[in-house]
Please model this.
Amino acid sequence: MSLQELVEISRYYGSNPDYVIAGGGNTSWKDGNTLYVKGSGTALGEIDSGGFVRMDRAALARIWTRRYPEDAAEREAAVLADMMAARAPGEAGRPSVETLLHDVLPFLYVVHTHPALVNGVTCSKEGEAAVKRLFDGPENAPPLWIPVINPGYVLSAVVKEEMEGYIKTHGRPPEVIFLQNHGIFVGANSAAGIKEIYRRVMDRIALAVGEAGLALRGNAAATSPGEEDVLSPPEGETLSHHAASLPQQVGDWVRAALAAYYPGGLFVRFDRNNEIARLVQDRASFAAVSSAFTPDHIVYAGSDPLFIEAPQGLPSATCRGGEVGIAYGESATAPLRGEQEAAPQGLSSGATYGESATAPLRGEKEAHSPPRRGAAVLACCATPDLPPRQVAKAVERHVAKTGRPPKVVAVQGVGVYCVGVHQKAADLAYALFLDAAAVAGYTEAFGGPSFMPQDKINFINNWEVERYRSSVSVKETKE
Ligand SMILES: [Zn+2]
Model:
């Protein structure tokens, strides 16, 4: 029992993308009157003892005796001020937004994550019933289910109250808490106990997913290419006839349409794999990922992925088999034009093609291997003006409707463009978009997808704390 054990278990889950992506998740350890909780904006995968903020538990407990304003922004600001004041003497870090929740759970270790597999349950129509069905057992105190609720103080307050009721009923605290449209809290008095519980939970959900006939996938892994998803030239056309690649050309249009919203420059990456190809077939197939499942999806990939119907004049929907996702002539290795920053190596831009989607976040070299021979798609030379205007109009409509530019732009029959102020931000948008796709897939085992309600989405979009987390996480990894 030590801070070192907390560091180890934090890294254990933080470095596994099946559990944690980007700055997601948080962990804690209680040592008498001191709570060590992950600092806001710190990544679990590389955390060391300095990444935890020491909190005075007596001061945290006093927060529950106070009254806070009704107004959400005022309330969260006041609670944040009290949390900062509850830090142990000399502590300079900013504690996780979920600190209060960590403190009220009566376990020495608490590990909170957002696994896609778990969120396949928490973001599904029959999530609550599924939890009852999967985990209710005579000798097993069942997990606690918390309906979708705004994060921060309100979530902690609801969990505290629900837990007190649970203890009255079951005579012990819940070691597993499912948060609808959010993730899972696991508590135990040893690191080994945490692992044991997580293993049990993940195995049980995986079993149910398998029983529903669905495949499991690694979070960061893309499915392998299959015939039906491959783009190929229209019959009678040859690769050499078409100098420009469609993804590159459409990428230029996306970039142009968004440039005005990124005065400091933007980074655009393109991806397509089998799963993405299926999702961008048409608006109906995109519906499963057309909104946000969890707060992390909103923070990193935006709450409103934009779907653009195949721009007129593009023979984009010709999918007739071939070898690999998308491959083209030389242009495929060229950067999307107007790049602001050079990538460290290999492909000198955010344009990653075809199979690169299998490992974009690990910095693996093969992610930038040259495109494989095979199918090609073309930017038809016939109507050069129309498609860019269509893309620009779609972006304008999106901004007018949502008040912000999209971080994920899906183009029918082509693929997805993830956008950010620099490569790291675009990569994060892609990682969370892939995660949403995985979650959507898993929900099929539990009655289908159920997005966050719009008022909860609005809350996150406006939440200063989340904005801070998002900006810190992006800043830290900028180098
Ligand atoms: Zn969380």
